[in-house]
């Protein structure tokens, strides 16, 4: 029925209406349009025999009242269905949050167990070192006692006289320290302290990087610039955000957060993955992989504008374009092109697919998708 007929009150009154004999089951009833005709499949609400298909009554007021009640009931059903969907959405979000908390608790428990194992190992090594040191001291004491027993009485008197004369010159120094000490303890201390190591220099030589391309075609300066940018980006950490104060050392690492987001993405928990990538980006906003992975999550969540924004940010960080970041640039162009096509901006999407093909011409999947987009644009023209 055309829009002009809808606006005409007289035409609206002449439209065909059927007041059925008894109520029907709206939930199971269906309507199908084929070849310009509408086919209704209606189910009775109560399994009783109807005397006729429609209600035989010419009372217009009663018919109008039945129609108004039916409209109100349909509105109430739609409202109830919307509320049920909202409750279901809240339940799904709650379940996703619970799953995230459980995974974080399990990861935290694993880290604590690992720390405890390392602490026990260090304690055991310290105890073993103490026992070994005590055994060495006992052996030294026994050796010294044996040597003393072998000495003659005359030799012992001579050593005592020499030790007395040497101790007279240092008596003031020892009494000022609060203890006189003895020869045996001083000798043990001297023997237990190892000799200082000799000073020397170590020369370090780095293995030069080998580029797969021929030297005349290689882009060594751009490669070196890209490597320097990556190394500098890894060292950058934004310590000003409030969340970083309550995090452990592992949780402050963007790479650890990226791996956590990848695990969430693999399990289908895209909201939790986005949260992990968000925190990693707040800590370090110079790593292109974080934006690239978050764009993939936004595509799954149908946040198409955010997917375009993250893909563009990743492409801005993937400069200079070198073979080392070629795969990442292909992913960024394909994900941005996919988001454009989902928004029915096929011309912009085709440009990204063409850019991806220039980087990776042998990729048949991208070539086929680009051809499909061309057909869509030609068909719309």
Brief description of this entry?
It is built from 14 helices and two strands, in the order H-H-E-E-H-H-H-H-H-H-H-H-H-H-H-H.
Side by side, the strands of the main sheet go 1-2
Overall radius of gyration: 42 Å
Measured by DSSP, the beta-strand proportion falls in under 5%
> Can you give the mean pLDDT?
78
Structural class: mainly alpha
Distance between the termini: 28 Å
Number of helices: 14
Low-confidence stretches: 1-14, 172-181
Number of strands: 2
Q: Report the order of strands and helices.
A: HHEEHHHHHHHHHHHH
Shape: elongated
Biggest sheet character: 2 strands, antiparallel
Helix content: 55-70%
Question: Could you outline the blueprint of secondary structure elements for this entry?
Answer:
Elements: H1 3-7, H2 9-14, E1 30-34, E2 37-41, H3 60-150, H4 153-169, H5 171-177, H6 183-192, H7 220-235, H8 254-266, H9 270-283, H10 288-300, H11 304-317, H12 326-342, H13 346-359, H14 364-380
Antiparallel strand pairs: 1-2
Verbal overview:
- The chain has 381 residues and is mostly helical.
- 67% of the residues lie in helices and 3% in strands.
- It is built from 14 helices and 2 strands; from the N terminus they run H-H-E-E-H-H-H-H-H-H-H-H-H-H-H-H.
- The protein has helices at residues 3-7, 9-14, 60-150, 153-169, 171-177, 183-192, 220-235, 254-266, 270-283, 288-300, 304-317, 326-342, 346-359, 364-380, and strands at residues 30-34, 37-41.
- The longest helix has 91 residues, at 60-150.
């Amino acid at each position: 029925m055309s829009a002009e007929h809808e606006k005409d009150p007289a035409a609206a009154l002449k439209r065909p209406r059927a007041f059925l004999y008894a109520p029907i089951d709206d939930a199971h009833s269906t309507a199908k349009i084929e070849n310009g005709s509408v086919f209704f499949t209606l189910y009775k609400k109560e399994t009783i025999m109807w005397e006729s298909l429609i209600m035989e009554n010419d009372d217009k007021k009663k018919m109008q009242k039945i129609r108004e009640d039916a409209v109100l009931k349909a509105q109430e059903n739609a409202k109830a269905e919307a509320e049920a969907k909202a409750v279901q959405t809240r339940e799904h979000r709650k379940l996703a949050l619970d799953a995230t908390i459980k995974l974080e608790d399990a990861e935290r428990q694993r880290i604590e167990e690992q720390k405890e194992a390392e602490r026990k190992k260090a304690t055991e090594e310290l105890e073993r070192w103490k026992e070994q040191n005590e055994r060495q001291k006992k052996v030294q004491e026994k050796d010294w006692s044996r040597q003393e027993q072998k000495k003659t009485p005359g030799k012992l008197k001579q050593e005592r006289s020499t030790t007395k004369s040497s101790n007279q010159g240092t008596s003031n120094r020892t009494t000022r320290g609060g203890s006189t000490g003895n020869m045996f303890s001083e000798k043990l201390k001297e023997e237990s302290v190892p000799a200082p190591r000799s000073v020397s220099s170590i020369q370090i030589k780095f293995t030069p990087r080998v580029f797969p391309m021929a030297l005349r075609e290689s882009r060594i300066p751009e490669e070196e610039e890209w490597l320097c940018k990556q190394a500098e980006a890894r060292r950058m950490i934004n310590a000003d955000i409030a969340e970083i104060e309550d995090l452990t050392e592992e949780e402050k690492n963007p790479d650890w957060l990226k791996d956590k987001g990848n695990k969430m993405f693999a399990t289908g928990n895209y909201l939790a993955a986005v949260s992990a990538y968000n925190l990693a980006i707040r800590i370090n906003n110079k790593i292109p992989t974080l934006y690239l992975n978050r764009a993939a999550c936004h595509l799954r969540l149908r946040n198409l504008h955010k997917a375009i924004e993250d893909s563009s940010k990743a492409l801005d960080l993937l400069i200079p374009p070198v073979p080392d970041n070629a795969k990442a640039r292909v992913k960024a162009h394909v994900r941005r092109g996919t988001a454009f096509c989902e928004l029915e901006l096929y011309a912009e999407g085709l440009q990204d697919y063409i850019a991806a093909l220039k980087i990776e011409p042998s990729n048949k999947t991208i070539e086929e998708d680009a051809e499909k987009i061309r057909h869509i644009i030609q068909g719309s023209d």
